[in-house]
Amino acid sequence: MLFRATLCIVVSSLGFGIVGCGGDSGPKLAGVTGTVTYGGKPLAGATVTMQTEGVKGQASLGSTDSSGKFKMTTGGRAGVPVGKARVGISKAADTTGGAAKTDMKPEDMMKLQKAAGGTTKKQEPPKPAIPEKYADPTKSGLTADVGANESKNVFEFPLVD
Asked: 18 versus 46: which is more confidently predicted?
């Protein structure tokens, strides 16, 4: 325990941060939530990415639930750095026929593999379920102005073709 505390002090004095050493490392974060719809319907299973301008490092990430709602995190901490953020939203098409992979039985997996031509056939990457233009935060045209007042950090992203 003494070694860990000493290591944290030494590393902190050098200007580096280690997860688990205590204290807040990184930029100040504010809670961010919202909803993603596509064609007027909630978009479940999408990944939301936010890159705050002027903040180097990790992007903030979130996933939509069955009602299209998401909460953002940055480096394992809840929230997004305060400032103007570029937003990307992506979702791969469902290639399981609606069945979750964890719910599949071995015989179902065999059927899918057989339908795909066995193990020697090269698999095509899944096509996106939404237009690709939304995936890249630098090209999507989607933005979020994240403020310190978390009650105002609720964003709606109505995606269309």
From this structure: 46
Report yes or no on whether pTM surpasses 0.85: no
pLDDT at 117: 64
Handedness of CA 76, 129, 131, 37 (dihedral sign): negative
pLDDT of residue 1: 42
pLDDT in tens, 87-122: 999 998 865 555 444 566 777 767 777 776 655 556
Dig out the tokens for 140 from the structure: 């999507």
Q: What angle is formed at CA 114 by the lines to CA 109 and CA 115, rounded to 5 degrees?
A: 100
- The DSSP bridge pattern shows strands 69-71 and 33-38 to be antiparallel
**CA contacts within 13 A on the Cβ side of 161:** 2
| Identity of the residue numbered 68 | G
β-strands 33-38, 154-159 pairing: parallel
The DSSP code for 29 is E
Strands, DSSP E only, in the chain?
A: 29-30, 33-38, 41-42, 47-52, 60-63, 69-71, 73-74, 77-78, 80-81, 83-90, 142-146, 154-159
Indicate whether 155 pLDDT > 90: yes
How far is Cα 100 from Cα 77, in angstroms, rounded to an integer? 28
CB 77 within 8 A of CB 26: yes
